[in-house]
User: What shape does this take?
Amino acid sequence: MSKLRVGIIGAAGYTGAELIRLIDAHPYLELKFVAARENAGQRLDQVIRSTQGVDGLGELMLERFEEGDALQIGKKIDVAFTALPHAASARLGGALLDAGVQVVDLSADFRLKDQALYEQWYGQHPRPELIPQAVYGLPELYRSKLQGAQLIAGPGCYPTSAILPLAPLIKGDLIELDQPLIVDGKSGLSGAGRKPAQGTLFAESGESMRAYKVAGQHRHTPEMEQELSVLGSQDWKVLFTPQLAPMIRGILTTTYARVKAGVSAAQCREAARDLLQGPLISILPEDTLPDTLHVRGSGRAQIAYAIDDRTGLVLSIAAIDNLARGASSQALAAFNISRDYEEATGIPRLAQYP
Assistant: This one.
């Protein structure tokens, strides 16, 4: 089987670097084009030092890519992964889509189905006519729709860690409908991106744990609400509190909901096993809890459930690697499904442990 030619638009960031690593290990893909605005003109091994000495990879030149270049670039690649800021991904990815290239977008540009909602949170959408075409790239919930998809919207990292454990509870009608869902997420510092900023300096964050963008201010809130609401009979409201943790990569998210009378943690686990089927997810047994160390560098998600009988709340806990299952490896899994490859092709199933 001949390999598909891949381009990464936005290859100089952390998700771009993760994509490079994964694509290099994929038996059916070959990286042919890399672009990054600020690093254009540099060799890849000057920007992503992990590619030094890797024949056929490190010597690739990072190019500057504009909309007018799409037809020319479209002759060089079959699929593009766009890892750019919002609006830029839709603009450049949309141009490549017009040129016949399959696009897997890792930004927020195609996650929200309501244009007005997108523009409320992100500003004007440059290609709103493409929104209905995009398929949300969460494999366990959208596997059938991903087959043959030409435009894939990679889910956000925090939403992935909240939607996966909550989906079985909503779909299985296991929680009460009259209260908001509480989502508490803790993320490693790489989620803030590669550009230097005071708040993510080691001296500022190495011994610190802090919340940010609380009380409905975080842009991932509407994404969670959208995806959870399509699963049941009502529109769900989410109270989301994101927090920065003093680690490089990983997300640990705990969600809280009021469980219906008589529902057990075992029923929650069974509902999750029924709904969340696939090679990149683990529903943990009783008395075993997720740990970011045990998913670090892998494409897997770990999920567990516990019920507090005193308060009537069910806790659903998920651990993912924010750069892998929360971004690049999940985008690759969705792509694999779209091409009828085995879902976990090229994706590490085991964590980097310790």
